[in-house]
Amino acid sequence: MILSLAITLAIQVLATMAALTVPVLAPAAAAGTGIPATLVGVFIALVYGAAMASSLASGSLVARYGAIRVSQACLLLCGGGLALAAGGTAWSMAASALLIGCGYGPVTPASSHILARSTPAHRMGITFSLKQTGVPLGGGLAGLVVPSLVLLWQWQGAALAVGAACALMAAIAQGVRHGFDADRNPRHRVSPAGVLRPLGLVFAHRDIRDLALCTFFLSAMQLCLTTYLVTYLTDEYAAPLVTAGLVLALAQAAGVGGRLLWGYVADRWLAPNLVLSLLAFGMAAAAMATALFDPDWPLVAVVLVSMLFGATAIGWNGVYLARVAQLAPAGQAGQLTGGTLFFTYFGVVLGPPAFAALVSATGSFAAGYAGIGAVLLAVGAALLRAVAKGRA
Q: Would you list the DSSP string of 257-299?
């Protein structure tokens, strides 16, 4: 179990770092390419749009080629996407986003396939949560390492260096492929029609379907926190940029701790659906408290609310993925995870633009956070109703 967790965590870290490298180096790239750094939102939308499609194909690909082989291909796609980004044109950036998204989408379903086979049932929550810390860790590495690489080798060299790291990780994974891919079926058919099969499987399992639909809103909340908090703090709380960045970093750190804590709670004390329901209520409360930020608030209060926001809005993923793996029939964890991630990534694609539209209509980030907080109250109630009906 330790080896499977270590390899899937490392792959997740590198794939996430690759997905966030271009947003981090965007200001430096803008100076040389003339492409506005503000278009980074379009880049992220393309990444997750491609990830939606590729996550659906992941189940069939894992069944035929094995989870490690698919993960290696994902890392190479991410590396190739970063090489394209170094081209510095609008078209190469768009192609880069699509290629990285195609690589990012199957990473989680492939790792779920591995972990579902190697993890005891009573450790699912904490194991999947540990693996999912790779997302904030990858984001943190992008924020810490990429700017230094830009100083050393310019922005193109930074993109190529992270791409090379992805290729190196793909080579390292070859050493464990024989054991982890022993269940692959080379005769398994991969067809366009089979790409939609994970969606059919999701809707055939009511509990998994309901979880998938809820994660559309949970992921939207997560991205609205990480995308807009710094701007909100500088514009409406009047915090200096460095202070706002530090608050976001603390929220991200709380998200890492939250992923581990909620996974442990779901394994030891509370049913996973109940944990997810409480987390939805928690992030709704944090969003509404965030909407009340005022320049008269002490900074320590803003930090505490933001860390609660991070612990809940960033911390739910491991419990959710473990629950999907628990509910999935034997051998179908990867396909069902891919199907549910279609809805999760859809929330990532649509959530921030919807939030931005609400802010634009009201002229207030506070209204945006209050609005999405109200939506999460309804999601928490829906999950709690499922628990009350004995469906957890």
A: HHHHHHHHHHHHTS-HHHHHHHHHHHHHHHHHHHTT--TTS-H
Q: Tell me, what amino acid is at 182?
A: A
pLDDT of residue 125: 67
CA distance between the termini of the chain: 26
Q: Which CATH architecture has domain 196-392?
A: Up-down Bundle (1.20)
**Quick one: tokens of 59?**
């189940």
Contact 320, 30 (CB under 8 A): no
pTM over 0.90: no
Judging by beta carbons within 10 Å of its beta carbon (0-12, 13-18, 19+), is residue 145 exposed, middle or buried?
middle
Residue 392 has pLDDT above 60, yes or no: no
Token output for 68: 């490690």
Give the percent of the chain with pLDDT over 70.
Answer: 94
C-alpha 138/C-alpha 104 separation (Å) is 12
Options 1.10.260.40, 3.30.70.20, 1.20.1250.20, 1.10.10.10; CATH of 1-174? 1.20.1250.20
Q: Contact, 81 vs 18, CB < 8 A? A: yes
Give whole-number Cα distances, 120 to 197, 208, 287, 318, 373, in Å: 27, 20, 35, 15, 35
3-state helix, strand, coil in the chain (%, to 5): 85, 0, 15
Torsional sign, CA 12, 106, 356, 279: negative
How far, in Å, are 14, 19, 324, 340 from residue 75 at the CA level? 8, 11, 24, 22
Contact by Cβ (8 Å): 147, 161: no
Domain ranges of the chain: 1-174, 196-392
